[in-house]
Amino acid sequence: MNDRSLQEARKYEAENQDLIPADQRPLFHLSPRTGWMNDPNGFSWYKGYYHLFYQYYPYTDLWGPMHWGHARSRDLVRWEYLPAALAPEDPCDAEGCWSGCAFEVPEGIEGLPAGAHALIYTGRTLVREGDREVFHQSQCLAFGDGIDYVKDPASPVVGAAQLPPGFSACDFRDPFAWWEESERLFYMGVSAMDAEGGGQILLYSSPDLKSWTYIGILEGCGGGIGRMWECPGFFRIGDTAFVIASPMGMPAEGEFQNLHGNVVLSGTYDPASHRFERREVHVMDFGHDFYAAQVTQGPDGRVLCVGWMQSWENSPVRQAPFRWFGMQTLPRELTVKDGRLIQNPVREIESLRKDPHVYEGLVLSGRLSLAPVRGRMMDLTIQLRGGDYRVFGFVFAIGEGHESVLFYEPETGRLTLDRSRSGYREDRMGNRVLLSEPGRRDLKLRILLDRYSIEVFANDGLQTLTSVIPTPAGADGIAFFAEGTAEVDITSYELAE
Ligand code: FRU
Fold this sequence. Notes:
This protein is mainly β. It has two domains: about 5-335, Glycosyl hydrolase domain, family 43 (Tachylectin-2, Chain A, 5 Propeller), CATH 2.115.10.20; about 350-495, Exo-inulinase, domain 1 (Jelly Rolls, Sandwich), CATH 2.60.120. The protein contains one helix and 31 strands. The protein has one helix at about 5-15; strands at about 35-45, 50-55, 65-75, 80-85, 95-105, 115-130, 130-145, 150, 170-180, 185-195, 200-205, 215-220, 230-235, 240-245, 265-270, 275-285, 290-295, 305-310, 325, 330-335, 340-345, 355-370, 375-385, 390-400, 400-410, 415-420, 430-435, 445-450, 455-460, 465-470, 475-495. The strands form six sheets. Strands 22, 23, 24, 25, 26, 27, 28, 29, 30 and 31 form a ten-stranded antiparallel sheet that branches.
């Protein structure tokens, strides 16, 4: 049970934030104001700002009774901290304010404050079931003005009573909601576990956010894709519908290399029957550290996505005694090509580019450093043109006995990140491999480094790989290598304010 109030959390974070030096944080990735961060929550555009909340425990760098931390930004790369938005201090959420979503309340709905910022999140509570105590999860509602939020007394608005037969209130969480203007209805997907232990996304609808009706199952693991599907999402781009989720306990197969993974399913959605027809299933990101992604729409119509840039597997491991832990990815612009999801860094990142260096038609054989190209906050584009090479490598965070290696083998189309010398004393995860097309010699890579991470966008965003790089920030060397002869163009920028 959490015995600290929202007021206390706000006081604590305001007093302790300055103990974290700016150069100990990433430059453009959001990290917690103090303490621990996990999932992105409530990613939304509201009254002139992007808002990004996050699972938050301000008092230590470990997971605890969850609060909602809060930040806002006009451009998705420069974030301003706001006071924590929610603390687990009410009967509906006394054991934690878990993940959820946010949106602006539309006009003209009786009983709802038009124009307010609505939050729907999971409240965790301890309940007695016979002679034992268990944790239950139910969906709660709060309204605010972009800074301060008040929990609605109707909370929880969806609980055990609205579960279909066989489902358990012990695993019933992470609501994401959207408004269908044509029907004047809200829809909400919530992740849940069926009687066989399979993860399912339950779909509900409501005219007023307070009374919800169960409709059916939107999607689920179907016996094959992990167990509990945490943090689900649903969106459409053009004619293609997408379901995303973070399944726990994935089998290590094919594209899926993480125990707690991330998936994107593409297909079609029929709004009349509420049926999602699955066409393809892929991993959303091949890296070590991408989980619990959320999607929202910007004011310009762009579909944007952000994920927790961390894995649960490695989350107990600490490299440095920092007063913060956890980062969000750089938000991504989502588009669709040939029915597949395409992810690219938001274009606003270009506003941080400094000091360009362009090398065209390099013929690389062996290892090469390009004197001005070094740093841990970088934006690089590497275009392999071809050549007779067996391996091409990008080596970064070099120094003080460390180096991290991203290498590509065209014969198999495998792009591997080896972070065995990236400063982890105990990396629980091993290498991660992005699978491109076997035989392809003209791989294109966009790489973003931001002190403690690498984000790789391959083949114009068809595949991505995101990983934490805990190497001490002073190790800032960069080199390239080829076994055989590779022809390559390289463009690099430093990223700075
Ligand atoms: C996913 C998750 C969610 C839950 C939250 C708790 O990382 O386990 O399912 O709401 O984190 O912090």
